[in-house]
């Protein structure tokens, strides 16, 4: 068996690497660029850019090895029928979900701001999940798609660490997936929350899973 050098202990890779998926959470303009949802909530969005080169490199390793890739997008239907009023009201941002912003309607599917950043744009054959919640399993076909492909191991990346990435990792952990959060491929608007998340998922003997840097994963894969 092959292992990734990880915290709190070595992460066992599946015998068949096709059971391992790279999950890229919400690397969309809404969170990464000025004028989107993240900005409207008062965050310094440009600090998320730091992970893009490392994540792009890990994605290209997965593509070279022809291993499964999942992209997610946080978004809502244009009529907001899948957005609970509690979510729309939350945060008291300058622009709310559904409002017209500089990149189109905030967090609405198909709007320019809702697109994945060009560096990480999905290619044919990769799974794309449109999710109305913070977690990627809630109200999406993700479970069924992973089961269909026999995927058992997930590498979690993307933004933001303590919101959509951690929620998805916890949902996946409860569903029996072996989860590892990639330390330098996830970022938060709050560095201390990223650090706390990495520590809390690996605490108690890896109560939610593992963490490791992208280099450790690449070393185990290639
Ligand atoms: N605001 C924030 O940190 N995150 C979100 O609203 N969604 C995701 O994390 N994708």
Please name the defining characteristics of this protein.
binds tricarbonodiimidic diamide, globular, 6-stranded parallel beta sheet, alpha/beta, 222 residues
What this model shows, in words?
This protein is an alpha/beta fold and 222 residues long. 32% of the residues lie in helices and 20% in strands. The protein has 8 helices and 10 strands. The protein has helices at residues 29-32, 37-40, 52-64, 85-89, 142-149, 161-174, 191-206, 214-221; strands at residues 3-4, 11-12, 20-25, 69-74, 100-101, 104-105, 127-131, 153-159, 178-187, 210-212. A 6-stranded parallel sheet has the order 7-4-3-8-9-10, sandwiched between helices. Strands 1-2 form a two-stranded antiparallel sheet. The longest helix is centred in the last third of the chain and has 16 residues, at 191-206. The mean pLDDT is 97. Tricarbonodiimidic diamide (TIU) binds at residues 26, 31, 38, 41, 74, 134, 159-160, 163-164, 189.
Please describe the topology of this protein.
Elements: E1 3-4, E2 11-12, E3 20-25, H1 29-32, H2 37-40, H3 52-64, E4 69-74, H4 85-89, E5 100-101, E6 104-105, E7 127-131, H5 142-149, E8 153-159, H6 161-174, E9 178-187, H7 191-206, E10 210-212, H8 214-221
Bound molecules: tricarbonodiimidic diamide.
Tricarbonodiimidic diamide is lined by residues 26, 31, 38, 41, 74, 134, 159-160, 163-164, 189.
């Amino acid at each position: 068996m092959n292992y990734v050098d990880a915290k709190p202990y070595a992460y066992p890779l599946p015998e068949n690497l096709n059971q391992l998926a790279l999950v890229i959470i919400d690397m969309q303009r809404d969170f990464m660029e000025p004028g989107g949802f993240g900005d409207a909530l008062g965050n310094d969005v440009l600090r998320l850019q730091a992970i893009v080169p490392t994540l792009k490199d890990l994605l290209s390793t997965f593509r070279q090895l022809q291993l499964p890739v999942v992209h997610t997008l946080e978004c809502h239907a244009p009529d907001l029928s899948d957005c609970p009023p509690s979510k729309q009201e939350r945060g008291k941002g300058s622009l709310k979900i559904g409002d017209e912003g500089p990149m189109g309607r905030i967090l609405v599917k198909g709007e320019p701001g809702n697109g994945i950043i060009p560096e990480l744009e999905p290619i044919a054959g990769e799974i794309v999940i449109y999710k109305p919640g913070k977690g990627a399993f809630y109200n999406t076909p993700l479970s069924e798609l992973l089961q269909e492909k026999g995927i058992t191991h997930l590498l979690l990346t993307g933004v933001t660490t303590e919101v959509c990435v951690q929620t998805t990792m916890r949902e996946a952990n409860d569903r029996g997936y072996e989860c590892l959060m990639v330390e330098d491929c996830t970022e938060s608007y709050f560095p201390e929350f990223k650090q706390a998340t990495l520590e809390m998922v690996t605490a108690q003997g890896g109560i939610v899973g593992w963490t490791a840097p992208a280099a450790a994963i690449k070393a185990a894969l290639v």
